[in-house]
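tool=predict chain=A
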Amino acid sequence: MRQLAGVDVAHGYDGRPTNVPRKRACSRAGITWRLAHYRWLPYRGSLRLYFSLGDGRTVAKSGGMFSMAGPILYSANPFMAYEICCRYLNGKHHVWRSEVFDPTTQASISSGSMIGPTSSPAAIVKALAADTKFQDRHSHHIQRYKKIFRRLAATWMGAGLINARQAQEIRELVGQNSYLIWRPMLYIIPREPLQSAGRLIAVPVKDRATHGPEYQIRDLDTVEFDALEWSHV
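tool=predict ok
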């Protein structure tokens, strides 16, 4: 079992969760959740969250099994993105997120089922996990992230968020001959506080990967979400 940010993550070997209920739970914004991580089976996998609503009721939500929006948003990112934002941007993260973990588990009548693979947290963590495990030199995900952070280093320096030395450090960090730094992280983000504060931005249709809904938040603080390290199993 691995523990990150107060959440217990366990791997099963037959598609079932292990050690549920968890020894520990996380609580943010009045919502408590426990995580059960299922082993990825061929072409399938699931993520189940157990929500305690404070009145004795518990609701289980499996990574997008429902058509209605849930209290949690998901964002998939490489470890290097987390590291750079914590180290150089005072723990502020600009993330794209989804209210659906795995669009393939959604009912076909739901717009969440039409979220494209490049915006699907499930697809992203699985692809990055495979690319880093097998050290795929042609990984388009890793190459794209390297280009993004080289560009952002210049953008942040121009905006006065970092200095020239820090911009050079970022370029050197992403240029390392390492696959471990690109291993996937899954952010578990409470929706209500961000939506109430007007910080949850709906991505315009023209900027989405496909028809399915996508969201951004440009100033997500490290203390406002839990980061789970995702490993290929």
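Residues 1-46, 50-68 have pLDDT under 50 and may be disordered. The longest helix spans residues 140-158.
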